[in-house]
Amino acid sequence: MMLVDRVLAQGELTNFESRLRRRDGTVIIGNLNVRLARDDRGEISPLEGFFENITAQKEVEQELRSSEEWYRSVFENTGAGTIIIEEDTTISLANTGFATLAGYSKEEIQSRMKWTDMVATPEERFRMEQYHYRRRRDGAAVPINYESTLKDRDGANKRVFLRVDLLAGT
C-alpha cells in the first residue's frame, strides 16, 4: 500500500521511519507524520505533514548498541566467573563462567537467585552480607579481595577467590 493510500484509509500516518537521499547524495533518516485535512465541505484538501530528521538520534542509538555489545562480550569472555549483584544480593547478570562454576544456567540465576544463597556456611554468609552492606555504606571499610566457599547446585563446596567492588554509578 502506498503512503498516500495509507493516509487516505487511516486518516493519518505517524512516525513512519524512512530514509531519504538528499540532492548531495547523503542519506538521512526521518520520521514522517502526515494527516488528512478536509475543508469546510468535508472535501479532502492537501495533506498536511512534516518530516523530522532523526539521523543523529539513530547514529547515537547505533553507537550505544555497539558499545553495549562490546561490554557484554568483555563481561562474557573475562575468563573468570563474573556476576553483577543488586543491593538486595539478587544476581542481575551472570556470565557463562559463573553459571558453569555454580552448576546452574544463566536463566536460572539471573534475577532469580541471590548470591548469599550460594554461600556454603551460615558464618560465611553472615560475613559476606556484612561486607556487602558495609561496602555500600562505606566502601573503604571492607576488603575487595577475599576467599569464600561457594555451594554449587549439587551441594559441592568450591573454594573461590572473590574480587568485589561497586560499579560506578551504583
From TrEMBL:
<dbReference type="InterPro" id="IPR000700">
    <property type="entry name" value="PAS-assoc_C"/>
</dbReference>
<dbReference type="InterPro" id="IPR035965">
    <property type="entry name" value="PAS-like_dom_sf"/>
</dbReference>
<protein>
    <submittedName>
        <fullName>PAS domain S-box-containing protein</fullName>
    </submittedName>
</protein>
<dbReference type="InterPro" id="IPR000014">
    <property type="entry name" value="PAS"/>
</dbReference>
<feature type="domain" description="PAC">
    <location>
        <begin position="14"/>
        <end position="66"/>
    </location>
</feature>
<feature type="domain" description="PAS">
    <location>
        <begin position="67"/>
        <end position="112"/>
    </location>
</feature>
<dbReference type="Pfam" id="PF13188">
    <property type="entry name" value="PAS_8"/>
</dbReference>
